From TrEMBL:
Gene Ontology MF term list: oxidoreductase activity, acting on a sulfur group of donors, disulfide as acceptor
Domain of life: Eukaryota
Keywords: Glycoprotein
Protein name: Gamma-interferon-inducible lysosomal thiol reductase
PANTHER family, A to Z: GAMMA-INTERFERON INDUCIBLE LYSOSOMAL THIOL REDUCTASE GILT (PTHR13234), GAMMA-INTERFERON-INDUCIBLE LYSOSOMAL THIOL REDUCTASE-LIKE PROTEIN (PTHR13234:SF71)
Organism: Aphis gossypii
Family statement drawn from the similarity comment of this UniProt entry: Belongs to the GILT family.
Amino acid sequence: MIKWMDETWFLKSYTRILNHLISLNLTPLQQETMSNTKLIHSSHVLTNDNSLMENSVKDMTYLPVGVYYEALCPDSRNFILQHLVPSFNKAPNSFSIEFVPYGKAKTHENSDGSITFACQHGPVECHANKIHSCATQHVKDQSVLVKYISCMIDNNYEPEMIGMLCAKKHNVNWNKIYACSEGKEGELLLKLNGEATDKLWPQVSFIPTILINHEQPRQASVLKDFWGVVCSYFPPDSKPAAC
């Protein structure tokens, strides 16, 4: 069975996050939003002793899938459009997908309190990664989020324009996402994505990196036959009908 983080670790992490948020002079509502985001990302930790978890969903209602990617990465684009979306469409009620846009970027915390990023595919990708990060925070319906992320990554070289067009297409509140991407919220969300990515074990060597049930299965197999690997995680009596 999955080993979850112990209570002491959880409380220490939560306290550290709140202290950091207070230092940013965010409003109480913003602090709550950001701390909730961080707690979600904390689930990336496998176990306290870094051991792998069982390759079985057992009694879980949804199979957790983590997608660690970059907005302008061709391999990320291919995985999301050719593997993730078709698999999700086969069994939308069987997945809990977490998008983590960051990849091999670097985070720089400046003396004035601002945060800047250096991304593998340049400043445009950093901008796109922020928009994707804000989408994961503000689009609550998973089905809509999958459609929105896949719409943007299909052609993400003008992030604002495509973000706005995809938002209109899928009835997403673009104003909220845009405001997030241009402010402290977007900076912090992308920073947290970086921390989550850096905590992965084994460490990221290829983008995208995919977690299934909070572990990293053999990535070559996942990127070649995601649906087949996903089906192997379900016990025979609870496999999606499409498996």
